[in-house]
Amino acid sequence: MGTNVNPDKNQLLAVLQVLRKYNLKGTEELLKKEANIAINLEQEKVESDVNSVLTGYKSDGDPETYEASYVELKHFVENSLDIYKHELGMILYPVLVHMYLELVYNGHTEKAIDLMQKFGPDQDLYYQDDLKKLALVTKRDHMNGNELTDTFKSNQFIIRMSRDTLSLLKRHLHDKKESVLLNIIQEHLYFDMYEGVARNKAQIDATAGAVVGEATRLDNKAKVYYGIPKAPDIQTLAAPVEDEEEGGEQETPDKPKKKKAKKDPLFSKKTKSDPNAPPPDRIPIPDLKDNDKVEKVKSFRESCRRITLGPETMPSVCSYTLLNANYTVTCAEITEDSSILAVGFSDSIVKVWTLVPQKLKAMKSAEQLQDVNTDAEDVLARMMDERSGESSRSLVGHGGTIYSVSFSPDRTLLLSCSEDSTVRLWSLQIWTCLVVYKGHMFPVWDVKFSPLGYYFATASHDRTARLWATDHYQPLRVFAGHFSDVDCIQFHPNSNYVATGSSDRRVCLWDCVTGNHVRIMTGHKSPIYVLAFSICGRFLASAGADCNVLIWDLAHGHLVAEFQGHEKTIHTLTFSRCGNLLASGSLDHTLKLWDFNKLSEDTNSEDVNISHNPEVKMGDLYMLRSFATKSSPIIALHFTRRNLLLAVSMYDGITT
């Protein structure tokens, strides 16, 4: 403790101001005593604005030197050896941004504008949108509450760099002793060093583009249980259903037994447990109701008749086109068993249609329900009023545009989220709103039910995602860490994790148990609007406004493939039930099918170096087929249990 530290007086004054503000007199006196500051804050007319100290934008840099410093750095990068040039080039963008903000903060507007105009256009294409937004910030006051400048001020820009490149940069900075440059690099940049060969431009571009740079290797170190837990034994669930089903048709009890024995191998197919699956008691799981068991067996039976898709056996596609709905339809969702369609509208209404001959019935009145025999096998069917059947129903209650809808696995409930910052839970038996969940302060962009039911997750403009349970008014977890809107959310098939996509151009995977992020994945160049997990749980597909589908390996958080081909924003992604195909639907009126089975085989056959990103595969090899509608953007895709592909599109009426 013998070192003699000369504290910066302004910093100490700022700390004293904070202590004074919160009336922490004892601590204030101690600090004054220890730092030998015998001053009265009232007498000291120093502009010790707390913010100015905490931002790290020091005002001692001569405004004349900024441009020369930047030009000198640019020359150093350009004249470096090709092997290091591209990695060194990664520092130019964050240095330019912080030089610009530092000049603006200290009142040198003209110099700042000049710097931005000269060097802004040289930066990578994927940073141009952010640079345009920053160019509008020309006064210190503009920085207050500005999402982008706040993000840059409060977070270090992360750059992954090889040891050799980093030592080259350090030598250069040491020789130059450039105070402006050195301050910015020390305060605002974080170098995540790795051992190995420096990356080339294509490798850098693949994972670049997020607001604050790449993820550090530490961000993706945690273990992720991406496997699927063993399903409950179908055979034990099946027994009562078999008796009931066969007993109606056959007189003798022997025949059904024979039939059941025949189906034994069918039901006991999947017994292997996944080594990467989470422990079964890792999260509380709701008990299966009798109805759920019946449904599981029915689903299993249907999946046994499923066609396994691939390059030789492509799916048939059936598209539901919404007419007279241009500019009013905002979202759509189809139930797991493909029987019901829900559509959200900009006029705050949710409309539900049946896709099968069975009508949408409402429950009988309380008086009529008293007459129902509760011991009857088909008690649930008896509770519904046969005469109330409709082919569509409307759910009214929100006070703003509906942004997303999600069905519960048992199809008795529907969630909707809206611009009015609430989430509503609707009963599809009595067709009314049961609960309004109020927690977000701003519009809620997405809502998803867990594959287990009971839990659901939301994503909002307030930069958070939240995990809820249907019987709790308050969220169970708040996932905070994105720097901009959280635009989409998706549950992992094992319900232990949720993935989020954001306007900060990062995809995050969050652990529902701890509430922490366990993966941060960068590579998108625009906001992300849709996410889909592979059937095996190991891969995550994401897409959005940059028109590309990116595939991530959750084992290490690596980007493994980039599927290019769409020309407009992608709003829907889905995997076939067999997991072999990935379908993507876009506002460019096309639906594309990708050979995901081939990709996962190629990925598994590679020897992955964990410390280093693998080569990113391009989509041309994996594209199987593109289907086009005449004039209908695709807003939702869904594979039925037998692998028929359903699309929901809206006719936009503009023929070209």
3D architecture notes:
The structure is a single chain. The protein has 3 domains: 16-49, no CATH class; 54-199, Serine Threonine Protein Phosphatase 5, Tetratricopeptide repeat, CATH 1.25.40; 317-369 and 381-650, Methylamine Dehydrogenase, Chain H. The chain is an alpha+beta fold and 656 residues long. The chain has a 5-stranded mixed sheet, with no helix packed on it. Strands 4-5-6-9 form a 4-stranded antiparallel sheet, with no helix packed on it. A hairpin with a 5-residue loop joins strand 14 (444-449) and strand 15 (455-460). One of its GO terms (cellular component) is transcription factor TFIID complex. Pfam families: TFIID_NTD2, WD40. Its main location: nucleus. This is Transcription initiation factor TFIID subunit 5.
Share of β-strand residues:
25-35%
CATH architecture type of the largest domain: 7 Propeller
CATH fold naming of the largest domain: Methylamine Dehydrogenase, Chain H
- Percentage of residues assigned to helices: 25-40%
* Major pleated sheet: 5 strands, mixed
Rg over CA atoms, rounded to whole Å, is 29 Å
- Low-confidence parts: 1-6, 41-49, 240-264
CATH superfamily of the largest domain: YVTN repeat-like/Quinoprotein amine dehydrogenase
Oligomer: single chain
C-alpha termini separation: 76 Å
What is the overall pLDDT average? Answer: 85
CATH class of the largest domain: Mainly Beta
Tally of DSSP β-strands: 32
Tally the helices.
Answer: 19
Family: Belongs to the WD repeat TAF5 family.
Subcellular location: Nucleus
GO biological process, one term: transcription initiation at RNA polymerase II promoter
Main location: nucleus
